[in-house]
Write a structure and sequence with these properties.
By secondary structure, this protein is mainly α. The protein is about 30% helix and about 0% strand. The protein contains two helices and no strands. The radius of gyration is 16 Å and the shape is globular.
Length: about 80
């Protein structure tokens, strides 16, 4: 959990108590483990092991901490040129 505490400290986000399910430290740890179980990178054909290529983190400006979740799926972007 040390690797999670440092970014929280840098961003001035209080990590909270370790066993408090509503604290950021517990939420981020839980979501990280859940996302890690979903990743199955194909390195046999030169795929990356870095999860940054497979995981996107988004912050929505509404809701409560307890509503944080992992969403499994594919992200598509479309650039429109005029």
């Amino acid at each position: 959990m040390r690797s999670i505490r440092e970014p929280l400290r840098v961003e001035n986000v209080p990590p909270g108590e370790e066993n408090d399910k509503a604290c950021w430290l517990e939420i981020i740890t839980s979501l990280s483990w859940e996302a890690a179980t979903l990743l199955k990178p194909d390195t046999s054909q030169g795929g990356q092991m870095d999860p940054g290529g497979y995981v996107k983190v988004k912050c929505l400006a509404s809701g409560r901490r307890s509503q944080s979740m992992v969403v499994k799926g594919v992200v598509c972007k479309k650039n429109v040129a005029h």
